[in-house]
Design goal:
42% of the residues lie in helices and 15% in strands. The chain is an alpha/beta fold and 240 residues long. The protein has a single domain, classed as 3-Layer(aba) Sandwich (Rossmann fold), CATH 3.40.50.720. It has a 7-stranded parallel sheet, sandwiched between helices. Strand 5, helix 5 and strand 6 form a beta-alpha-beta unit.
């Protein structure tokens, strides 16, 4: 069987204005996919509308009704929705006596609550239309932990658990679930850190967002009988 042709399909991408989300949006656009994007910055989304011909909603990912609004926009604009990239996320790490608990709880809302809302909203639609693909962006820290990053890892473990349970529930249907587990990627996620983690890990060549985007397109373009439940991608120097 040949790989799936994505031309003409419709994808919703969260966290679309930077890093992995932006790279995936551009990758999918190059493959003929029509896009519905969301992030907080309307200015950046307007630029992507011009670049990629995308529809968008500028909003905070934690707004409870945002997933249904994104799905409605995809259906009203394009008449269908085939793919959702669950990508929006933040990171809070720190030692026990220093970490900001309020920020940790805010991270849980973004990384867990909003991810779960997007996943269930779109998977229900995919089941009703007998097809679709949910891509959840997890992390290598969704499979292991390190000191000071337990809370962040916990949010990614939650994504791993949800993805695997959904995969099991959806076995035998035309709905696919893929969990992408990147190692260190050069994105804006660490922009407020005094020292970039690549220095502490002695990683000279971290992943680029485009490396992760290729993994997403690989999972999406498999033949219909093939599932890629998990795909871990690491820099060659990453010893985690």
């Amino acid at each position: 069987m040949t790989s799936t042709n994505l031309d003409g399909q419709v994808a919703v991408v969260t966290g679309a204005t930077g890093g992995i989300g932006l790279a995936v949006a551009r990758e999918l656009h190059s493959l003929g996919v029509k896009l519905v994007l969301t992030a907080r910055s309307e200015v950046q989304l307007l630029r992507l509308q011009h670049e990629l011909g995308a529809s968008f909603i500028a909003a905070d990912i934690t707004e409870p009704d945002l997933p249904s609004r994104l799905l409605e926009l995809a259906l009203s604009t394009h008449g269908r929705c085939d793919i959702v990239l669950n990508n929006a996320g933040v990171i809070e790490v720190g030692a026990i006596d220093a970490i900001d608990i309020d920020k940790v709880c805010g991270m849980a809302r973004v990384n867990v609550e909003s991810t779960f809302r997007v996943a269930y909203t779109f998977v229900r639609h995919f089941l009703a239309q007998h097809g679709g693909h949910l891509i959840n962006i997890s992390s290598v820290l969704g499979t292991k932990v390190r000191p000071t990053a337990g809370a962040y890892a916990g949010t990614k473990f939650a994504i791993e658990a949800l993805s695997e349970a959904l995969r099991m529930e959806l076995a035998g249907t035309a709905v696919a679930v893929t969990c992408i587990e990147p190692g260190l990627v050069m994105t804006g996620l660490h922009r407020d850190w005094q020292v970039h983690p690549s220095e502490g890990m002695n990683i000279q060549r971290p992943l680029q967002p485009e490396d992760v985007a290729r993994c997403v397109s690989f999972a999406l373009t498999q033949p219909s009988h093939v599932r890629i439940p998990k795909l871990m991608v690491l820099p060659g120097e990453h010893q985690i």
